[in-house]
TrEMBL record:
Residues 135-259 form the Acyl-CoA thioesterase-like C-terminal domain. Residues 23-105 form the Acyl-CoA thioesterase-like N-terminal HotDog domain. It holds the Pfam family 4HBT_3. It comes from the Bacteria. InterPro entries: ACOT8-like_C (IPR049450), Acyl-CoA_hotdog (IPR042171), HotDog_dom_sf (IPR029069), TesB_ACOT8-like_N (IPR049449). SUPFAM superfamilies: Thioesterase/thiol ester dehydrase-isomerase (SSF54637). This is Thioesterase family protein.
Amino acid sequence: MTAPEAYYLPLGEGRFESTTATQSPWDFAAQHGGPPSALCVREIERHHDDPTMRVARFTADFLAPIPQGVCRVTTRTVRPGRRVALVEAELTFGERAAVVMRAWLIHREDDRAEPADWAPPARGLPGPQEQRYFPGMDPAWGYGRSIEWRWASGAFDIEGPAAVWARPHTAIVAGEAPTHTQLVAAVADSTNGISAPLHLDGWLFIPPSITVTCLRPAEGEWIYLDAATHVAADGIGVAHATISDARGFVAYATQPVLIDRR
């Protein structure tokens, strides 16, 4: 059983149809947050088509459950600039907004600064592993199958911090190669899911937002997430991940999380 070759089919004029590869683990009629985030990054990059500017931070706010079906993405420049610019993308179904993303783009110039990187290195890529998902989950889960997961520690079916190499083998939009920032967006929303500290049979983890701050675009096929979720007694949590590739540090991801009993 394989996932479709793309998360979205282009319909023209900013409209896209989702495929089963976008499926949420909890409701196959809804979408996981990763693919819509990646689609919004794509539209922001296309809106601000300047090779000297790149996405340095994006925040996706999930305003409602994201259904399967046909959506439209519109973009606008909120703050123009030659050195920094703010661009917004809105993903809608009919008249209802489901995702709003804002991204800061910063002017880049080769050899402008001395590199300094203090993030810990990623663990080595493990060999091929059996692809297992959350306990009791239908293995047909589309988003899960759209990515190859190789765990350095933890797993979907183990509570607590986790470190995983993820290789998306699904395009964001059919017929085109995704940028590496789009691929980071596609996997970053898994931060809270891979590191939930409480058993998912009894607890809900709902992240209404994700922020990814990027040092540089990822390189190569594999993206590494070293993730943990912290939970306060009042049911508010924070999930975070250090994102790396084989070369080193790429980005940080953070999510606020609502935690409640099922």
